[in-house]
Write a structure and sequence with these properties.
The protein is α/β, with parallel strands linked by helices and about 250 residues long. Helices cover about 45% and strands about 15% of the residues. The longest helix is centred in the last third of the chain and has 18 residues.
Length: about 250
C-alpha cells in the first residue's frame, strides 16, 4: 500500500526568521504524526534554517528547483549536490510556474529529474493542464505528454523513487479546485501512462499527489480517492495549523 505524502511548497514566501517560527509551530502540531510522509519545501534562503530545525524529527526537507549540472558558470542556480549537503531529500521540478514564467519544457525537466535521481534526491515532478486545454478537451493529451516527456528514459526503480504531482493550472492559487472525481480521473490517467512506460507493478508503486487549492476543508475527500496519494500544498502550507490539518487528513 502506498504511503501518503504531503509536501508544502512555500514558493517565494517567508524570510529565515519567518521560517523558524513556522517550523517550530509545525513541530508542535505534528509532533506525534507518523501516518504520512511530510515534506517542507521553503525558498533556497530558508533551507539551512529549516534543515537545522527539523533534525531529529520525522519532517523531511525539499527544495523548489535545481539545475541539471553538478557545478559551473550558472549564476543564480543551485545544484543537486548543494541541496544534498543541506540534507534535502526531495526537490520540486517542472512546477507550472516554472513552465509558465521561466519557459521550462519537458526536455529540461527531464534533465533535471535525471540529475536529481543521480544525486539521490527524490524529484516531485509536476504536470497539469491549463483551463484552455481542459475546455478544449485536451487533458489526456497534455498530461500524458508531460508525463512521458518529463520522465523519459527512467528505469522502473527510478520511477519508484519519483513522485508525480498533478496540478491543474487553473486551480492553483485561484480558489478553484478540481472535484475529487475530476482529480481522480487524471490521477488514474497518469498511473495508466506510467504502466505503459514501465509496468503495472511500477505504476501501482508510484505516489501521485494532487496540487491545486487544497485546503483543510477538501483534503479528506481528495485524499480518500484511490489514486490520490497526498498533496502538494501551496498557500495553505504557509499557516502551521492549516497545513497540519491537511497532513492529518492524509491519515484518515
Amino acid at each position: 500500500m502506498r504511503k501518503k505524502i504531503v509536501a508544502g511548497n512555500w514558493k517565494m514566501n517567508k524570510t529565515a526568521s519567518d521560517a523558524e517560527s513556522l517550523v517550530r509551530a509545525l513541530r508542535e502540531e505534528l509532533a506525534n504524526f507518523r501516518e504520512a510522509d511530510v515534506v517542507l519545501c521553503p525558498p533556497f534562503t530558508d533551507l539551512a534554517t529549516v534543515s537545522r530545525l527539523i533534525q531529529g524529527t520525522h519532517l523531511d526537507l525539499g527544495a523548489q528547483n535545481m539545475h541539471y549540472e553538478k557545478s559551473g558558470a550558472f549564476t543564480g542556480e543551485i545544484s543537486a549536490d548543494m541541496l544534498r549537503d543541506l540534507y534535502c531529500h526531495y526537490v520540486i521540478l517542472g512546477h507550472s510556474e516554472r513552465r509558465q514564467y521561466f519557459h521550462e519544457d519537458d526536455a529540461l525537466v527531464n534533465r533535471k529529474v535525471k540529475a536529481a535521481l543521480a544525486s539521490s534526491l527524490r524529484p516531485i515532478v509536476c504536470v497539469g493542464e491549463t483551463l484552455e486545454e481542459r475546455d478544449a478537451g485536451r487533458v489526456e493529451e497534455v498530461v500524458s505528454t508531460q508525463v512521458k516527456g518529463s520522465l523519459a528514459g527512467l528505469s522502473g526503480k527510478e520511477l519508484l523513487d519519483t513522485i508525480v504531482a498533478y496540478e491543474p493550472v487553473w486551480a492553483i492559487g485561484t480558489g478553484r479546485t478540481a472535484t475529487s472525481d475530476q482529480a481522480e480521473d487524471v490521477h488514474a490517467l497518469i498511473r495508466k501512462t506510467l504502466a505503459e512506460m514501465a509496468s503495472e507493478a511500477v505504476a501501482q508503486g508510484v505516489r501521485i499527489q494532487y496540487g491545486g487549492s487544497v485546503k483543510p476543508g477538501n483534503a479528506k475527500e481528495l485524499f480518500s480517492m484511490p489514486d490520490i496519494d497526498g498533496g502538494l500544498i501551496g498557500g495553505a502550507s504557509l499557516d502551521a495549523h492549516s497545513f497540519a490539518e491537511i497532513v492529518r487528513a492524509a491519515a484518515r
